[in-house]
Each structure stands twice: as C-alpha cells, then as structure tokens.
Amino acid sequence: MYRLYWTPGSAAMAPQALLIELGVPYELQLVDPAKGDTRSPDYLKLNPHARVPTLVEGEMVMYEAAAIMLYLCERHPGAELAPAPGTFQRPLFLQWMVYLTNTLQEELSRWWHPERSVGPDERHHKLALEMAERNLDPMWRFLDDRLARHGPYLLGDRFSAADIYLAMLARWSRNCAKPAAGFPALGRFIASVKSRPAYARMLEQQGIAQ
Ligand SMILES: N[C@@H](CCC(=O)N[C@@H](CS)C(=O)NCC(=O)O)C(=O)O
C-alpha cells in the first residue's frame, strides 16, 4: 500500500495520476501548506523540505515528484508506463523526465514564486515574471514542435509517465500570458492526457475542474 501526501494542483498531481494508471492500492493524505501541515514535526520527518509530494511505502519514504514517478514505473514494469532499461526508448524517456523536472518545472516555479528569485519586494516581481515567461516561451515552442513532428506523445506513439508529468506542468502555465494549452500540438496533447480515465480521476480527486 502506497501513501501519497498531496495538496491540490501541486507536484503531487503526476504521481497521483500514475498510481491510478498503475492500478495499485494507494491512500491519499491531504496536507495543506497554507495551514502549516507541511511544517509539522511529523511531516518534516518525512520531507525535511516541507514540500509535497511525499510517497511512503512501508518503511520507504521518498520525495521529489519525478523520482517518485521513476520509482513507481520501476516497481510496476508490467504497466509499461516507462520503457524498460536497455530498450531503445529508455534513454529518451530518462531525457524527458529530467528535462521536464530540471528545466521546465524550475522555470514554472520561478513564475509561481518570483520572491524566491528577487526577494519579497513586490516591485521586482513583475520583472521576474516577465523573465520567467520569456524563458518559458521557447520551451513550450520546442515541446510543441516536438509533439507536432514526433507525437502524439513525447515517445511518439507510446504513452508514458513522462506525458503525465508534462500534462501537469502544462497546467501550471494556465495563468501565463502564453499558456501551454494555446500551442496547437500541446493543446491536443493536453486534451488527450486529460481524457485518460486515470488522469481525469486524479483531477476529480483533487477537485480540479480543468
Ligand atoms: N522539486 C519538488 C518541488 C516540490 C514543490 O515545490 N512542491 C510545492 C507544491 S507544487 C510545495 O510543496 N509547496 C509548498 C511550500 O512551498 O510551502 C518536486 O518536484 O517534488
């Protein structure tokens, strides 16, 4: 039995959708950073960074959404949500997972939290947001082009956990001047992932309408 600590709309979205895709037993534990849940002594023992998600399985405790995705795919190879080690598409899968978490997610985090880049003075936040948008634009263009030429998924015809991750990150851009959903191939991709029963169920569990 897995236990996933989550908060709505957070980086827990992708691991949560993956647990449902895998069809494995899991329970969800809601933690609300706004109420200080992530700073409670008990939660800090699980995740010293006071962030979500955190995955617990018996004695095993881990955080970092992308690492959780990789671990779950490894634990349940039969679901084929990641190419197996040694297969042709494995390097590409790893490339996408790391690109998404290390590059796209980081820039989106800068958009959501300008104070972490330029400090608490709100006069500087506009510039930080503009910089993040400027950096995000070529990333969305690149992904849109990739999906248009080699899609419909990041691994071509093969759906994988990386697609779940990208759909989550795409949602985080919904309030940007140029949201991911506005790019044609990305828009089709997002609609396709959202139409999967597991992803739709995750959105329902999180109380997210779109
Ligand atoms: N790199 C981490 C980032 C986790 C993260 O920043 N989570 C956010 C929600 S998306 C969070 O817990 N924020 C609460 C806070 O900063 O207090 C991951 O991908 O798991």
From TrEMBL:
Superkingdom as given in the UniProt entry: Bacteria
Keyword Transferase: yes
Pfam families: GST_C_2, GST_N
Keywords annotated in UniProt: Transferase
InterPro entries: Glutathione-S-Trfase_C-like, Glutathione-S-Trfase_C_sf, Glutathione_S-Trfase, Glutathione_S-Trfase_N, Thioredoxin-like_sf
GO function terms (MF aspect): transferase activity
Name the record gives this protein: Glutathione S-transferase
Span of domain GST C-terminal: 86-210
Domain GST N-terminal: 1-80
Organism: Hypericibacter adhaerens
